[in-house]
Amino acid sequence: MDRRTGASLTLLGLTESWAESTLREFGWWGDDGPTPGAEQVMWALARSPDPNAALRGMERLMNAVSDRTELDAALRSDVRLRGRLTALLGSSTALTDHLVTHPDRWHRLAGDVGPADAEGAAATMLRAVGADPDAPPAGSPGGSAARLTGAEAIAALRAVYRDEVMALAAADLAAVGEPELPVMEIEDVTARLSDLAAAALKAALAVAVAEVGEVGRLAVIAMGKCGGHELNYVSDVDVVFVAEPADQATTKLANRMMRVAGEACFQVDANLRPEGRQGALVRTLEGHVSYYKRWAKTWEFQALLKARPVAGDAELGKAYTEAVAPMVWSAAGREDFVAEVQAMRRRVEEHIRPDLADRELKLGPGGLRDVEFAVQLLQLVHGRTDESLRSPTTLEALAALRDGGYVGRDDGANLAASYRFLRLLEHRLQLQRMRRTHQLPPPQDTEALRWLARAARMRPDGRYDVVGVLLNEWQRNARRVRRLHQKLFYRPLLSAVARVTADLGDVGRLSEEAAKARMKALGWVSPEGALNHLRALTSGISRAAAIQTALLPVLLDELSRTPDPDRGLLAYRRVSEALADTPWYLRLLRDEGQVANRLMHLLGTSALVPDLLVRAPEVLRMLAAPSTGFSDDLTRDPAEVANSLRLSVARHTDPASAAATARSLRRHELLRVACADLLGVLSTPEVCAALSSVWVAVLQATLDAVERTLKAEGTERAARIAVIGMGRLGGSELGYGSDADVLFVCEPVEGADEREAVRYATTVAETVRRTLGAPSPDPALIVDADLRPEGRNGPLVRTLESYRSYYERWSEVWEAQALLRARPVAGDADLGRRFIELIDPIRYPPEGLSAAAVAEIRRIKARVDAERLPRGADRSTHTKLGHGGLADVEWTVQLLQLQHAGDIPELRTTSTLEGLREAVAAELISPSDAAALEAGWTMATRARNAIMLVRGKPGDQLPRSGRELVAVAHAMGYPADGDPGVFVDDYRRATRRARAVVERVFYGW
C-alpha cells in the first residue's frame, strides 16, 4: 500500500492492512481512490461505528451470497440498504454472523422493506412453526397448534426471530450509515421488540400445544418491559400464567412453552408470579385474585402496573387484567406503601457492585431505574383518581403526568430526553454481541467507548473528541436524572402551596388534594401539616422564600428517607425561622450540598439537635467538608474544647454570667458531639469522653467563677476545694442526659479553722449547684452529691480528715464500690490527689473481699434489680437496669476490681471498658466473656444515648414500636427504611449474651 492510499483509507477509518486488497477485490477502490459509483458505499463504511469490522463483515457476506454482483449493484444504488447494512455490520458481530449464515436475507434490508409490525411478526413466526395465524390462538379452546415440534420447531423459530430482530436493528441503525435516512425513535424500537417477543411467545405456545396436547385454557400475561411495550434487544421476558383449570396439564404446557421460547429466542422468567419461585407456576384467575387481596406486597402491585395479555386465551387474559387493575390503583393507600417501595428500591441498589456504580446505565444513580421508579410511584399515587395516567409504558406515562400537571413541562421533556438517551446507549451495547448488559465500557477502554459513541450517532464537537462527547453526555444525563427525580416528587408540591408562583418556573400544578396524596405516599403522616410548613417557608416574594423554593425539593427528598419526615420538616421550619436573620444560613444550605443533606438527616432523626441548633447555629458550618469526610471542627480534641471553655468563662466576674457562658459553650459542644455521633464520626467511647470532658470543664469554670466572686465581695478564701467525679463522670462515661455525680472535699487554708473552711466550701458548693441547676432550655446541668457519706442526710462538704474518719469507722461495702469510679475533676489538684490516696486502700482492699462482702454486693444488686426497675418496663430492653444492661456489666467489673485490684494495680481504673481489658490481661475473665460484656455495655450505652437524641429527653427504655423505635435504630446506624426489629433483635442478643456472663461471673451461678 502506498503512502497516499494508506492516508486515504485511514481517513475513512480503515486501518487494517488487508483493507485495500479487499476493496480492490470488490471493485470499490482503484489507483486514484474510490471507483466511480462506489464513493457512497465507501462513505457509508466510514460512518459505520467500526469501519474495519463492517468491511470484514462485508467480505464474509460477499463470499457467502449466491450473486455478489446483485448485492454490489444494490449497495451502489439503494441508500436504504447501504445505510442499514454498513451500520449493522459495524455494530453487531452477532447479527453479522446470522446474516452470513443466511446470506440471502440481505434482501430484508433493501428498498422499502422494513421490520414487520405486530400482526405481521406474529403471522410470520406462527407460519414458521407450521401454525395457522388465522385460527384461534394456542391456549384457547380450539386453538391452533404447530406442525413442527422439538428441535425442528426451535430451529425454525430461532431463525425467523433472529431475522426479525436483524431487520429491526438495521432500520434502527440506518441513520448511522446514511444520515439522510430517518432516525427511528427509541419508543418505536422498544415497542416493536415487545411485539416480536409477544409473537415469539405465541409461536412457542403453539409448539407446546402440539407437543403436550390441548389442555384447557392458558393465558400468558407479559410483565416488566415486555408488558410495558418497552423491551430491550436482549432481555428476559417476564410472564405470569393464568389457567382454567390450573392443573398438572396446564403447568406442563406453560413449562414447555418457556423452554421452547428460551432455547429459540430469549429467557422467559416467571418469578414475578405470586410467591415467586416458591409459588405455583400456573394459577386460576380466582387463585390470583385471592392472593393479591390477602398476601401481596406493594412491590407486586407496582409490577402489575405493566401487566398485559400477549399470548394464549385472550378472554382469560383480559379478565385477569380487569380483576387486578382496581387493586393496582388502590395500592398507594396501603399503610406500608412507602416502606415497601423503599425496600424494593434498596434491594435494587444493593445489586450494584461498587466498582461498577459509575458505569451502570440501569441500576446506578441517575440511571434508567431512577426514571422508571419515579414515574411508577407518581402513577400509583395519582392514578387512583386520574385514569389518564394508567399507561404501562414509561414514556407514555411520563407524558400523561406532564399533560396532567403532575410534572412540569420542561422537567417532563428533559427526563424523557435523558431516558431516551440512556435506552439508546443500552440498546447499542446489547446489539454488539446480542448479550444482556447495562454497563458502559471502562474509561480506559477508549476503543470500546469510541465504538459506542459512533453507534449512538455522536460526533466530535470542537472541544472534545467523540469519546469525550459520550462521557460528557452520560454524566450530564445522569446528573439531570438525579436532579429531576427530586423535582418530580417535590417541586410541584411547592406550586400547590405557594402564594406567588412566578419564581417556581415551569412546574406541575397540583391541587391541594393531589398534593396531600403525594405527601402521604412519600411518607408524611400528616400531609396537611407538611403543606402548611411548605406554605410558611415559601410564601412571599423575599429572597429567602425564593431560596427556600429552590432548596426544598432536595431537602424534602432527603427528609423522606429519614425515620420521621414530619418532625424533621417541622424542625427545619423552626430552625429556618429562628435563623431568619442569620445572613449565611440559607446561602450555606444552597452552596454546600453536604450541609443540607446532613442537616436533613439530623432533623429527621433527632429532637435534641433542632432544640440546640436554634441557639447554636454556628455548628452548621461544621457540617461542611472540602469534598469527602467531615470538617476537622466536628471531631475536635475534647481537651482543646475544655481548655477553650475554661478560658472563655474566666473572663466573667460573677457566677450568673459565668454559668451562662459555660452553658452556652456546653450547648455548642453538646450539639457538635450529637451531630458527629448521628453522622457516625465518633465511636461510643469517644462520645462519652467528649461529653464527660465538657462537663468537667463546666464544673471547673463555674467553681473558679464562684470563688472569684466571693473574693471580689470581700469574703476571704478559707479553704481549698476539690471536686471528685463519681459514677459515669468519674469513669468518663457520661451520656447526653447524665447528671454529674460528685463529692466535695475541702481543707482549711493557713490561718483558718475547720469550721470556717467547711462553711466557706459549703457556700461555694451550693452556689455552684444552684447556678448550674438554674432552669434552662438546654439539657439540665444537675450536680448530684448524693453519693457522699450519709447520703442526702450528710453534710454537702467534708474536710479530708472528716472523710478519712468516716471511711475508717463507718464505710460500708457499697461505698467502697462507689469509690471505684472516683477521680478528681475540678478544684485543687493536690487536694484531689491526696483524697485519692486516702480512698485507694478502701476501694482496692489489699486483702480483697470476704465471702460476706461478696454476698452483700450481690444482695444489693438483686434488690436494685427488683425495686428500681420502673413499673411496666421491659427488662429485656431497659438499657440501665435490664438484663445485660449497663448496671449488670458495671457491677460485674466493679466486683472483680474489689476482689483483685489490691493485688493487681492494673485493675485500678475508673473506666468500665479499660477494667474489662485489664481483667482479661490478668486472666480473671476469658476474652470471650469480656467481649460479650463489652458488646452488651456498648450496645446499651449507644441505645441510651440514641434515646436521648431522638426524644430530646433522657430515657432508659427502648421504644416498643413506631417511628420512635425506627429513629432510635437509625441513630445507631440502622437503615431508616429497614426493619427496626433487626435492631431490637441485635440489642437483645448482645445483652442476653452479656447477662449469661454476669450470671456466671457476678452471681456465681
From TrEMBL:
Adenylyl transferase: annotated segments: 501-1005
Record InterPro entries: GlnE, GlnE_rpt_dom, NT_sf, PII_UdlTrfase/GS_AdlTrfase
Signal peptide range: none
Start and end residues of each Glutamate-ammonia ligase adenylyltransferase repeated domain: 151-320, 597-835
Enzyme class: transferase
Domain of life, source organism: Bacteria
Occurrences of domain PII-uridylyltransferase/Glutamine-synthetase adenylyltransferase (ranges): 343-489, 860-1002
Region (Adenylyl removase): 1-493
Names of the cofactor(s): Mg(2+)
Entry annotated with the keyword Phosphoprotein: no
GO CC aspect terms: cytosol
Catalytic activity as recorded in UniProt: [glutamine synthetase]-O(4)-(5'-adenylyl)-L-tyrosine + phosphate = [glutamine synthetase]-L-tyrosine + ADP; [glutamine synthetase]-L-tyrosine + ATP = [glutamine synthetase]-O(4)-(5'-adenylyl)-L-tyrosine + diphosphate
GO-annotated biological processes: regulation of glutamine family amino acid metabolic process
Pfam families: GlnD_UR_UTase, GlnE
A molecular function (GO) term: ligase activity
EC number(s) given by UniProt: 2.7.7.89, 2.7.7.42
Protein purpose: Involved in the regulation of glutamine synthetase GlnA, a key enzyme in the process to assimilate ammonia. When cellular nitrogen levels are high, the C-terminal adenylyl transferase (AT) inactivates GlnA by covalent transfer of an adenylyl group from ATP to specific tyrosine residue of GlnA, thus reducing its activity. Conversely, when nitrogen levels are low, the N-terminal adenylyl removase (AR) activates GlnA by removing the adenylyl group by phosphorolysis, increasing its activity.
Annotated family: Belongs to the GlnE family.
PANTHER family the record matches: BIFUNCTIONAL GLUTAMINE SYNTHETASE ADENYLYLTRANSFERASE_ADENYLYL-REMOVING ENZYME (PTHR30621:SF0), GLUTAMINE SYNTHETASE ADENYLYLTRANSFERASE (PTHR30621)
Name of the protein: Bifunctional glutamine synthetase adenylyltransferase/adenylyl-removing enzyme
Species of provenance: Pseudonocardia thermophila
